[in-house]
Amino acid sequence: MKEHYDFKAGEVILVDKPLRWTSFDVVNKLRWKLKKQYDVKKMKVGHAGTLDPLATGLLIICTGQKTKISQELTADDKTYTGTFLVGKTTPSFDLETEYDKTYPTDHINDELMNKVVNEFLGEQLQTPPIFSAKKIDGKRAYESARQGKTIEMRQNLIRIDHFTIDSKDFPEVHFEIKCSKGTYIRSIAQDFGKKLGAGACLIALRRTKSGEFSIDDAKSVDEWLEIIENTEVVKD
Fold this sequence. Notes:
The structure is a single chain. The strands form three sheets. Strands 1, 2, 3, 4, 7, 10, 11, 12 and 13 form a nine-stranded mixed beta sheet that branches. A two-stranded antiparallel sheet has the order 5-6. The protein is built from six helices and 13 strands. Strand 10 and strand 11 form a beta hairpin. It is of the alpha+beta class. It has helices at residues 23-38, 70-74, 110-120, 141-146, 185-195, 221-229; strands at residues 12-17, 45-47, 55-63, 78-86, 88-89, 101-102, 122-126, 135-136, 139-140, 156-166, 172-179, 200-210, 213-214. It folds into two domains: 12-75 and 212-229, Pseudouridine synthase (2-Layer Sandwich); 78-210, Pseudouridine synthase (2-Layer Sandwich), CATH 3.30.2350.
């Protein structure tokens, strides 16, 4: 563990984001503690790549002057693990919304699933979920989706470098995916189901890597709060 931190000057810290916390919840919690510890009214704190509330794992937080490189860090490739549920869909492609359709899965076997996995590798156009933070006409897409409005989502060019599955718990299918920034794993779940001739949705997601950073080096929010509290503050 690093012995000395200068959060005011600038640090890059790795947080293991808890389930149901937003990325901004983590930023706000750490910022509040830092402002209190340093006895200042303002403290630069931001994240380098948001994580959905229903996802856990690696969240990169930048403080002080390090916030200037947050956009650079956001551009890095990401690695995720998680679980698809084959045979059911939801409007949000994950468990934010209730199941809306059920599909037969008797025709699905490992050979078909592995064939579908290979079809995802490489560059492709992906349609983001309507329940996403993408801005459409200056408004977050999920705001319109929750109001029942029809939204046309523009496709993005993404890249998938690595995609493996474990189907021992079928219809739950565990996966690991390495992808370019801006990739929606929820959309991969939706498309995975379609390519299988059935439906699928995302029921668990964890980010394990972002660029050179790994979840193995991350600490919980509480651990970071304790480190901040025990940080020696050098007065200007």
